[in-house]
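Hey L., structure's done. Input below.
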Amino acid sequence: MTAHPKQHVLIIGAGSMGLISGYILSQGGADVTFLVRPHRAKILTRPQLLYSYDDNDLKTYTDYNFSTDPVDITGANADDHVKYDYILITLDGHALKNEVGLELVRTLGDVVRGTKTKVIIGTVFLDLRPWFLRTSGIDADKVTNGQLLIHAYEPKIVTLPLHEPTDAKLLAQADQAYTDKLGPGFVVDDSSTAVAEGFAELYNASGISKCNVMPAAELGSFSSPMFAILAVSDLLGWPKYEDIDIEGELWTLAIQSMKEIQSLRVFGETGQTAAQTTTAAGVRDQFVGIAKVMYPLDFVAFNKYHHGAKVNTQDRELLRLCISYGEADGKSMIATQELVKLVEQH
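Output:
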């Protein structure tokens, strides 16, 4: 039996998504390198400690390389005549589109064009792939979208409420803490089936997490509308979801905005069907269910930190982009416009 050659993966960014994804990929035998800003390099010179809420254990992650110079993307390995088989981008939408991000995307284009390297855009944003293809010049069959469904954060930056049986002493030592309880830990869409299936196989080789492939419209119509709920959760002060008044003015606005976003032309019939079945009670119950599944990680507190602070600029940009897409479709997007107005005032 012929052994498969080792797969080489470059992960752009070594935040929570990058480190957890890298750890899982390395457990499956991938050779992982992180491309990071200089201020993150010092952290990576020592082993990374990863606390799992799922088994209350501390994992030690040492099997990786890192670089701070985008020029290091270039070159070749002995196996496939390209330096990396896959490049996973973990920057958020705002960072990817700013001046530094644009330069990085163009550099990726210069390196990847004409090679076998595949790219996974692990950034939650609306219709980002067409922009990435135009900006990078990379062939469409080499690029697909992906999302990490594992929830992870840095305990040394933010303190979340502790719930049993969390081991507080181990958590305090961790560079990252995470939970992987939502079914797949990673999803890739089928914008490029070959890229998606290849990456899923590589990820699944770890045996400790699961990557699923799903239709692009389905993934988009699921993730983008959720930002309306996160925005209203912030406006409400991040209550427990079981305490939300589903007939309240703000929750009603959130559901109306969700339906507007689901109905965008870019999400096709999948989005239209989702909009017809979305209800105030159903969405509330969905979030209540997620919180129960993710326990003992505090789902509400995690979202308050992550979406109420860390990536709130990206969240607002996504909602504004939804409005632009809706207006291009001839839709008024009244609820989403009102929601963005309230968020900006808040």
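Residues 81 and 115 are 8 Å apart (CA to CA). The chain has a mean pLDDT of 92.

-- N.
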